[in-house]
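re: the backbone from monday

yeah here it is again, tokenized this time
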């Protein structure tokens, strides 16, 4: 055997050894959490088609146990992540920014894995006299998933700052009420509750607009001056560093799931219906996830707009210098913002 072939053989043995040692210490369970809405179709696809298990096995992590949990808001979900009750979470961009800010520079820093979708969220009302947020009065109530910290709450603050001036960004906060999207939809449709406005998520926001008399007064894309990331997935540096092979499998599974959702939205819509036990017909759900402003992409879009605003009003101690500061390096080759 020549010296060159000896070197090649040694390199191959070393690579195999590294892969085996990397996979040997991996966790054999991964716990994922998401919130209400159609913003997490990649997770639905990953669950149904066992993509995590497939990619993990390819990297030497066999018999992986995958568990899924649903949270109503970012606070409870982030607390679960920090307390090590879950490994991977997903929600709106402000939820990621809040936890990144809280953990930045620590041994357990939180960063984004990737974006999941860019799609608008709508502020709807049943009140005929409300044409824009300028018409909201002290007697009005706006339901959203979590006051002050949800993506809806932050977008509402950004809209208020645009309309009433930066100093009045929190002008509408006293009108907001924390309520899950399904419950707030029922409250507005019933018409007998004090809740007369709801800043919701798909498909609940579309369901509301099917009832005569309910109309939109705000689209998040108008506030953001264009498409912006709605949902992202994030985790701790601790999980990523302790489970390098499993993390690679996760990113690969997300990439495959995103391609599946983008190519076959009806298939993904069917998985979502099954997972949440929705009574909505498949064609309606497919229409929602295929909307003209909806993009299923791992590329972060305008996340820095959220960060800059949140830092300007004190919700973050300091804004990141780049979107890459809040996402792990595996997606830094994407054209993010």
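seq for it, each position gets an aa:
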């Amino acid at each position: 055997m020549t010296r060159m072939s000896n070197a090649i053989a040694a390199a191959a043995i070393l690579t195999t050894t590294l892969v085996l040692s990397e996979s040997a210490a991996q966790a054999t369970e991964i716990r994922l959490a998401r919130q209400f809405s159609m913003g997490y179709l990649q997770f639905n696809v990953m669950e149904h088609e066992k993509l995590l298990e497939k990619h993990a096995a390819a990297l030497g992590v066999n018999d992986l146990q995958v568990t899924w949990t649903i949270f109503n808001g970012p606070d409870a979900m982030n607390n679960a992540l920090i307390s090590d009750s879950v490994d991977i979470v997903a929600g709106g961009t402000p939820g990621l920014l809040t936890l990144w800010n809280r953990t930045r520079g620590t041994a357990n820093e939180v960063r984004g894995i990737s974006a999941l979708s860019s799609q608008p969220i709508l502020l709807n009302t049943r009140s005929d006299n409300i044409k824009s947020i300028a018409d909201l009065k002290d007697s009005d109530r706006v339901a959203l998933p979590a006051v002050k910290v949800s993506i809806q709450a932050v977008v509402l603050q950004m809209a208020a700052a645009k309309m009433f001036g930066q100093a009045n960004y929190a002008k509408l906060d006293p009108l907001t009420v924390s309520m899950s999207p399904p419950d707030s939809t029922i409250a507005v449709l019933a018409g007998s509750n004090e809740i007369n406005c709801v800043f919701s998520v798909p498909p609940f926001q579309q369901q509301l607009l099917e009832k005569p008399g309910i109309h939109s007064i705000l689209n998040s894309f108008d506030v953001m001056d264009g498409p912006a990331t709605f949902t992202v997935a994030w985790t701790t540096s601790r999980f990523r560093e302790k489970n390098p092979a499993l993390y690679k499998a996760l990113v690969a599974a997300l990439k495959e799931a995103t391609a599946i959702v983008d190519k076959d939205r009806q298939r993904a819509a069917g998985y979502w219906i099954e997972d949440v036990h929705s009574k909505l017909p498949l064609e309606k759900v497919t229409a929602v996830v295929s909307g003209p402003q909806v993009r299923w992409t791992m590329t972060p879009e305008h996340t820095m707009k959220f960060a800059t605003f949140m830092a300007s009003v004190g919700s973050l101690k300091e804004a990141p210098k780049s979107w890459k500061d809040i996402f792990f390096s595996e997606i830094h080759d994407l054209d993010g913002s």
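Confidence is low (pLDDT under 50) at residues 7-21. The first strand starts at residue 29 and ends at 35.
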